[in-house]
Amino acid sequence: MTNDIKLEFEPRTIEHLGLQMYSHLPNAIAELVANSYDADATEVTVQIHNVGGKEEVLVIDNGHGMSEGDLATKYLRIGRNRRIDPDGGKSESGRRLVSGKKGIGKLALFGIGTTIRLETKRSKGLSSMVLKLDWDEMLESSGYYYPKVSKSDKPASWSGTIISLGGLRRASKVDAEALARGLSRLFNYGDSEFKITVISASGQQYQVTRDLRINADNVDFSWTIPGSFGSAVDAYVAEKKITGLVVASKKPLRQAMRGVTLYANGRLINEPEFFGSAESSFAFSYLTGYIDVDFLDELVPDVIASDRRAINWELESTNELRLRLVDLLTVVASEWRTERTKRKRARAEGRQDKSFESWTSSVKGPERQPLERMLSTIVSPDVDIPENLQDELVEDLERIAPPFADLLWRHLHPDVQGPAQADYELGRYFHAIDEAIKRYVTDVEIKSQISDQSAYSLMMSAFGHAKSKLHVFHKYFAISENHISPSTAENVEEGHKFLSAGLIRAVRNPLAHQEKEKLLSCGAFTHEDCLDALSLLSHLRRRLDDSVVV
To answer: Are residues 291 and 379 in the same domain?
Structure first.
């Protein structure tokens, strides 16, 4: 029967489907892996061999294999659609829905190599069939190509298929790890009884798993489908039996890793993208994942491109899917922004041992809004700042605008800020100024040695040009070598007296004799009045430190 084994084709068709449609190694090898899956294989091994300094790629499976008749009527038949076979598009065991449906995947190999050796055997076969195809010989034929066919002995219990691909159309060596990673993006089989392994020329093994595509160690947040994405999306997902996973990485992804990949029955049908969402969103630099949309495989006409890298989105059925995916990813991007901001903010607040809200709300002046904006920018999900730099920025910002910055920016005398600070931070502005004035009055009494007088009388007696106990400007007048006139010194001494007495009369006395709530409610005494009074008191306090007893 070997003379009946032939491949019928148009050379130009072979050239187009082989060379132009499958130029990437993972995509071409994926066609062979898919064939192994359809053949009920449980294990597929992709091996890189170095033969005489030249590399070959072997794909070995333990599927049911093919008979001589299968080779002639099925494998070499271009354009055979298995989905319309009497078996209903199921694998031989009936357990799997086959992925091959255009009958052109076998041509994929000629996009990356020039020679193919196929060895296959069914479990009940006495010997294996060996088929050899040569690209150059095919192009020289006139539409009928008779590949070289032979037989080889194999153990009676063995079944499966071995395909060797030689004459690779590439200058660089095959990177087994990169090939495994590429295959991981092309398959999403839910069948636990299907294992894919890539083995390098040196014997290093790489399991093709979802972990290669989505590194669990780099996942920051994740969204499982079905989930909560709005009533319209959730209803559509349930109706179409859509499943999947979208994850956000901790760091921005490489461009090739960004986007959500679509699969149908375990095979890629649309390369990673965001389906027309607002792709300028910073969130999409972090998002990747996969969604299984098996129902697309059943649509007529076929909506999946021959190379399984894109979907025809111009149809009503696929456009509806696209719109729902946009809605879903919009929700994901929004939740990512919220959760990322919360996490960055919680970390920053934890290190500062205070919330941003309590910090910024303590700043009463117009500087509060810029402070809030700067802190929001530092923890914004749209800003990718290393954690150590984020810490430095927050710490530097706290040095510039610390909590209760309005008080600290006044740089008050220690004996003014000390008594006032605790009450000021509690919003007890009356008590803050009152405590600071009490300290001032006590220190004036001690230094002037005047007692048993009211605070107002004390100031009038302790300070002034004539008949006073303390001269606050004598130090400067003495060292000026007559550059400061006596009248200036007199004005300062008298001014200090009246400022001190005025502070008692204008601030302390009203606070002591008037209901504080009434002063607050009408705006007669605010935190700004407190700060201004403390600043005046700070000036008087420094003069007191420089005063001399006369």
So the answer is: no
Which segments of 265-342 are extended strands (E)? 267-273, 287-292
Going edge to edge, which strands form the sheet with 219-225? 219-225, 243-249, 287-292, 259-264, 267-273
Of the residues 279, 312, 337, the one at which a domain ends: 337
Q: How far apart, in whole angstroms, are the C-alpha atoms of residue 121 and residue 39?
A: 12
Q: What is the pTM assigned to this prediction?
A: 0.68
**266 contacts 188 by C-beta, under 8 angstroms:** yes
Q: Are residues 369 and 388 in the same domain?
A: yes
Mean pLDDT of 193-197: 89
Instruction: Give the closest residue to 137 by CA, choosing from 246, 254, 14.
Output: 14
Q: Any long-range contacts for 392-399 (C-beta under 8 Å, 24+ apart)?
A: 394/348, 394/351, 394/352, 395/352, 397/371, 398/352, 398/359
Strands of the sheet containing 195-199, edge to edge, are 148-152, 128-134, 115-121, 160-166, 54-61, 43-51, 195-199, 205-207
Cβ proximity of 148 and 127 under 8 Å: no
| Number of helices followed by number of strands (H, E) in the chain | 20, 17
Query: Domains in the chain: how many in total?
Result: 4
Whole-number Å distance between alpha carbons of 193 and 201? 26
Contact in structure between 219 and 289 (CB atoms under 8 Å)? no
Q: Of 194, 210, 226, which residue is a domain's last?
A: 210
pLDDT, residue 10, reads: 63
Same domain, 143 and 258: no
Task: State pLDDT tens for residues 75-98.
Answer: 877 766 555 565 557 888 888 878
470, 447 contact by CB (below 8 A): yes
- Sort residue 14 into left (φ over 0), alpha (ψ -120 to 50) or beta: alpha
Domain CATH code at residue 152: 3.30.565.10
Tokens representing 127 are 């010997």
Pairing of strands 195-199, 43-51: parallel
Looking at the fold, whether 383 and 465 belong to one and the same domain comes out as no
Residues 123 and 238 in one domain: no
Residue 40, in any domain of the structure? yes
How far apart, in whole angstroms, are the C-alpha atoms of residue 272 and residue 58? 28
DSSP label at residue 173 = P
Percentage with pLDDT > 70 across the chain: 89
Q: Are residues 161 and 83 in the same domain?
A: yes
Domain that holds residue 498: 408-549
- Measure the CA dihedral 86/88/92/98, to 10°: 130
What is the mean pLDDT of the segment spanning 140-154?
79
Q: Identify each DSSP E strand in 62-202 by its residue range.
A: 115-121, 128-134, 144-145, 148-152, 160-166, 195-199
With beta carbons less than 8 A apart as the criterion, state whether 286 and 252 touch.
yes
